[in-house]
Amino acid sequence: MKKPSFLSLILTLSFLMVTQTSFTGLTGPEKQSVKKSTLKLFNGKNLDGWYTFIKDRGKNVDPKKVFTVSNGMIRISGEEYGCITTNDEFENYKLTVRYKWGEVTYAPRTDRARDSGILLHSVGEDGGSDDTWMHSIECQVIEGGTGDFIVVGDGSPNFSITSPVAPEKQGSSYVYKPEGKMVTINSGRINWFARDPGWKDAKGFRGANDIEKPAGKWNKLECVVKDREIHIYLNGTLVNHAVDVKPYRGRIQIQSEGAEIFVKQVMIEK
């Protein structure tokens, strides 16, 4: 029998290695896993990385303990209007917030829909809007309306969003519709796609098609920010979408707005 040459052996081994690699799917960018970095904005113990701001009190002055941490949760009492604000600014991320409504509400919203909000791309001075919030783009958190966009701006084009909307408004507000006509707003709101047209500002309101779970049940809210685009998901369902968002980066704020709310996770993936 003729002995194989050394070169033949090398070529055969090379072919086998390439063939095995092709079948195991270890090459090609489409097969490579992309590692994402995760940042816990809430560590489960305290509000490190955040500061408080309360209307008529200012920064880190919270005598009524509107913002507290216990049992691995942030409790926002709602007794006074204000927010917790990240020390850092962010852009291009997926923000995940797990929250549930409590039972307690305060005047002037004692009998009204439980209300809070997540303010994205917050910039400028603390209290720049209504002496309470920074100018920002809000993902509304309110019974029956969680996932609405609200432009918390100064009325200028510096704060605006563009979204596809339905032909008919709900009151003075547009309603998100994926295949709708694109509109740009620099004030007001764009409601999530299935907001009940008969919505009432009443405690415990439930719309026929609500995706948010009722008070006492945990919800998962995700804000996916990429460049000048934001997708809002509530409990896994896409509820709103905006493009050409201005500004496109900033701090993150969580509001205290008359209703008790608990938060057990605030996390960013990049």
Explain the overall architecture.
With 270 residues, the protein is mainly beta. It has one domain (38-269): Sandwich (Jelly Rolls), CATH 2.60.120. Helix content is 7%, strand content 42%. The chain is built from 1 helix and 19 strands. The strands form 2 sheets. Strands 1, 4, 5, 7, 11, 13, 15, 16, 17 and 19 form a 10-stranded antiparallel sheet that branches. It has a 9-stranded mixed sheet with strand order 3-2-6-18-8-9-10-14-12, with no helix packed on it. A hairpin with a 3-residue loop joins strand 2 and strand 3. The radius of gyration is 24 Å and the shape is globular. The model is unreliable at 1-32 (pLDDT under 50).
Helical content stands at under 10%
Taken in chain order, the helices and strands follow as: HEEEEEEEEEEEEEEEEEEE
How many helices in DSSP terms? 1
Shape descriptor reads globular
What amount of the residues lies in strands?
35-45%
Largest sheet: 10 strands, antiparallel
Give the count of structural domains. Answer: 1
The CATH architecture classification is Sandwich
Low-confidence stretches: 1-32
C-alpha termini separation:
61 Å
Mean pLDDT: 91
CATH topology: Jelly Rolls
CATH class placement: Mainly Beta
Report the C-alpha radius of gyration, rounded.
Answer: 24 Å
Structure class: mainly beta
Which superfamily, in CATH terms, is the homologous superfamily? Exo-inulinase, domain 1
